[in-house]
Amino acid sequence: DLRVDGVMPDISPDGKRVLYITRDGDDWYAAVMAIDGDGPKNVVSVDPDKADYVFPRWVDNESFVYRTRSGIAGDDSELFIATLDGQRERVTDNVVKDVFPQPIDRDRVVYLSHLVDQKLSDGTNLSPAAVWMSEKRDGRLHDRSLGFDAYSFRLVGDDILYLVPNGTTCELFRAPLDNPKQAVNLTEQIRAKFEDLPAVVKR
Predict the structure, then answer these.
(1) Per-residue pLDDT reduced to its tens digit, 2-18
(2) What is the mean pLDDT of residues 82-99?
(3) Longest Cα pair distance anywhere in the chain, in angstroms?
(4) pLDDT digits (tens, 9 = 90+) for 175-185
(5) What is the DSSP track for 97-155?
(6) Per-residue DSSP letter, 37
(7) Which strand ranges, in their side-by-side order, compose the sheet holding 57-60?
(8) Distance CA 153, CA 172 (A)
(9) CB burial class (10 A; 0-12, 13-18, 19+) of residue 84?
(10) Which of 96, 68, 95, 98 is nearest to 82 (CA)?
(11) Cα 26-16-77 angle, rounded to 5 deg
(12) pLDDT digits over 138-156, tens only?
């Protein structure tokens, strides 16, 4: 019977550990314990005002990505990768509020940005809930937009699945990460197949 005071759990790729967010008095932490509940350990502190949005996710069996305020730009939130010994490395360095990170590997993380009416130094407009990727090349961070907005997304192999608001509903798209412009509207495909079904099956 596993009992722990924590939220947003994620199981490590090897199935041996659980990553979660926990509270100790007035402080919040990203914590790790064995899958059987043994040896819980607070790894890094996180922003208590945004604890519900830390969204920690394993990168590999020895490190994880999480979100917290940078402490540099006021309310600006950045993504970090932490190792199990508490060492951390900044993943994003931008003016957007970075949320819901999903790592591809130690050098690439996909995330949502939530900031309206802001621009990067090159004049690029930032849209609310835009999907971005942070990449490390030559030892430096590079943030780039994948070119679309989304309500939520999930990485599936080399592709990204994402939901796009459309009026009062959402439509599901799938696109290759290396060429997001080749997106396919899965909702339209499903709808078309449904329309081709005999009326008796539709009921």
Answers:
(1) 556 778 889 999 999 99
(2) 81
(3) 62
(4) 999 899 999 99
(5) -EEEEEEEETTEEEEEE--SSEE-TT--EE-TTEEEEEEEETTEEEEEEEEEE-SEEEE
(6) S
(7) 57-60, 63-69, 77-83, 88-90
(8) 9
(9) middle
(10) 68
(11) 40
(12) 877 788 889 888 888 999 9
Q: What is the pLDDT of residues 1-60, one digit of tens each?
A: 455 677 888 999 999 999 998 888 888 899 999 988 888 899 998 875 555 567 889 999
Answer whether 64's CB lies under 8 Å from 57's CB: yes
> Are the CB atoms for 132 and 153 separated by under 8 Å?
no
In the chain, DSSP finds a helix count (H) and a strand count (E) of 2, 18
Length of the chain: 203
